[in-house]
Task: structure prediction
Amino acid sequence: MLRSILTKVKRPIESKHKTEVIYSIPCECGKVYIGETGEALTERLAEHRRAVRRMDNNNSLAVHVQRTTHSITWDKAEVIEQENNKIRRKIKEVLRIQNTDQCLNMDQGMQI
Result:
């Protein structure tokens, strides 16, 4: 009883606010973008949205939208995994990209 009074229970962090994550962003066509970031996913999503609006040719999502006129389903973006170690996070990103059938990434991520 005393322990429950003295111990504060932290509210879990909503997954889109977590940092150091591997994430996916789906398109309405069923293809998916896989990425990794050290920042909060909400921040990275905002960067991707800006790139799509600007039709940035260096951004896989923007290129896909430009070529197909599909819509990205931003609200279905999600954290796949959290990984604090940057090298392991990048390796896991590459493995996810390589093992995703309908991946729309332009590259395969970091070379391993």
User: Anything to note?
Assistant: The radius of gyration is 17 Å.
